[in-house]
Each structure stands twice: as structure tokens, then as C-alpha cells.
């Protein structure tokens, strides 16, 4: 029944004992650039504009071990997402519920869905090279295992910062005076009349969480921002797009942090389209703008109280749309994707959202859902306005877009259409209740640790 919730993982340390002395961290980073000729999400790879990576951290406080992973893929889908979770949990020496696996969602990148490759005896193009899958899983697996069996660093300080950025994100769903859908402002360069329209509902804050070792060296910084993170696609070249340019800008202008990672927040209805001037110039300009925000955060980091890791994961039933059109009405990649979703829908009726807290004031929100609307990120923040909250979406790509009830009532737009969206408007009430459950202990008490 829709609206059923299950707390599947929960560890709360109510005592005021300081567990922070035991917090340790390791990092890993793997080049997963596909070979020339391999399929990308939409077109073949004919050039490597920039390498792509799978990067992550493993945190351990002596009782709980958690893994955060950022993948330069458009998405990891369905059964493959489960394979990744199990592989990461095994190699990191933890449970699957403590793996937080997220794609950055660049479109000139990999669509990890080998289940959609043609079956033996069938014709059709590969969605992803099987050889690439085997090699990448092996490389990432070995990198995680090597990291956790190597030298851990003790965390001496937990640091955070926030910066409001202008000239980047803008809502892509444009409505008329009657509150009905009128236009889509896509990620690429848009007509001047669409660029001139208001920014709309966004989260303008770039958030950074940084870990410093006991010797005073900044080990890793995690940056979170909510938008479709790309300015171009269909270019027949693999690329890290705007986030990659931003991280390069940080590396070139600040050497105080050993490693920087980027996570995409709830950007389902948000893009760079209002400010994208197009071409490589657009990627460079937007990347520098995002990178400058990261640099600002690194210059004004503030120490937060350390404490034990707490993971709370809430499972819920997804209200799927039972009236989705049959696959025969679509062609090409759309047909392949829709067929896979329809054939495996029952496997994905349960999803999860999770909170991971580090001490009393710093929290991560992780959606297993995919293209979640920014409204849910803003709602989560409204539940704990005096706390620091960093949000990552783009989990299991099988779920498509996650709109609000209001978006369905706007009567139009790509995000609520049958090809992109598998849920009903009931998702709004379900997901808001999930978020209230995720943060219940934080809402009900100032410092529960």
C-alpha cells in the first residue's frame, strides 16, 4: 500500500560521550574513461574531451562505516545499481544500507545499463560495452579494497561553508499567468525570450563539507549544488562538463585540499539554460562560475562539532503510474529504456531516502530516487533550518523524474510526461512524509548526540 514506511537502518547514540576521536577517513579515485568507439549515453565516443572518474570517501567511527561515491555517469540503472551497491559494500567492509551511490548526471558520458543491451540473437546497438563494464567494476572494486586496507587518516576537524551563487541555476519549467506550463528552458543555449524570463524556484546555495586530519591538512572537500550539471551533449565526446571544469578551476587555484568531489543535488527541474551562452565557451564560463563558488567556500570554512556517524534510512513504496503507454508507441533508445522499466517495474516498487549525520549539526541527505525536483531539497532544509544539510540526488536511474504535485497540476512539460516520469502526483505526499521521518530525531531535539 502506498504510504507504507519502514525504518531499515538506524543507529542513534543518545549519550553525550565524544566518539569523534575515532573518526577516520580514506579516499579513492578511479579513471573510468571509456575507449574511443564505445557507446556513450546517446552517441558513440569519438573523442575524450576530459577523462571521467568514480571518486569517493569511506568514513569509519569504530562502530559505523559509510561510503559516499560520486560517478561521472549520466546514471546507473536498475539491477546495475544493486550490483554497484553490493560490490562497494563488500569491498569497503560495510552493509549495503551505508553505501551512498550517486551519479553526477553529465550527458556526454556513460549510461550504465547493460541490461538494455541486445540479447543474444537480437539486433540493435549496445547501450554500454560489456568489456567496459567488466574492466570498470574491477578497477573500482580494487581501488576501494586498496583504500580500506591502506592507511587511514584520523579526522581532526569537520568544516563546512555555504555560498550563494548567481548566474548558474534557473528553473526550466516556465508557467504562464494562469499557473499552467508554458515553456521548457533546456540545459543548452535557449532563445533570448526564454533566457529573459525569471530564474524561478531554485536552491542558490553551494554547500561544502571538508574533512581535515589531526595534522591540519585538509583531506577532502565535498561540494553539493542543485541543477542539471551540463551545458552541452550529443557531441560524440566523453566529458565531465561543467562540474569537471569547476573542479579543475579549484585545483588550479587552491592546493590546500588534497581532493575535491562534486555531488548533484535535486536538479530535476533546474538547469543552466538561462545563463548558457553555448558551445565550449558556455561550459568554460559556467564551470569557472561554479569553481569560484567552491573556492569561496574553501576560503571561509567553519569548524563544526564532531560526533559519531548516524545513518537512518527510510524505505517507502513508490506510487507508480499504472497507465503508462505500452512500449510499442516508442522507438529506438526510448523503446529499449521503456521496455526495461515496464518489464522490471515490480522490482523497484520500494525505494529509500537516507540521512547520514556526523555529529549534531552536519547532515547529508541521499535520495535513491533519480531526477528529484529541487522543491524536495528545499523542503528538507526547511525541516532543520538551523542545521547544515548537503543533499545528493541521482541515485538509481530507473526512477526517472520525481515531480511535485504542483508540477502535475501545471498540465504539461517534459518532466511530468509519460516518457520521462513513471510516478503519479501521490509521490509528493509520500516523499514529504519520508523526509519528515528521516529527520524526526533532528527536528525533535537540538543536539541528540
Describe the structure.
The strands form six sheets. Strands 2, 3, 4, 6, 8, 12, 13, 14 and 16 form a nine-stranded mixed beta sheet that branches. Strands 1-17-18-19-21 form a five-stranded mixed beta sheet, with helices on one face. The protein has helices spanning 78-92, 130-148, 192-195, 241-253, 279-299, 332-344, 374-383, 405-409, 427-438, 440-444, and strands at 5-10, 24-31, 53-60, 65-71, 73-76, 99-103, 110-112, 153-164, 170-171, 173-175, 181-184, 205-213, 218-225, 260-264, 270-271, 302-304, 309-317, 350-358, 362-367, 371-372, 388-392, 401-402. Helices cover 26% and strands 27% of the residues. Helix 1 (78-92) runs parallel beside helix 2 (130-148), helix 4 packs across helix 5 (279-299) and helix 7 (374-383) packs parallel to helix 9. It is an alpha+beta fold. The chain is globular, with a radius of gyration of 21 Å.
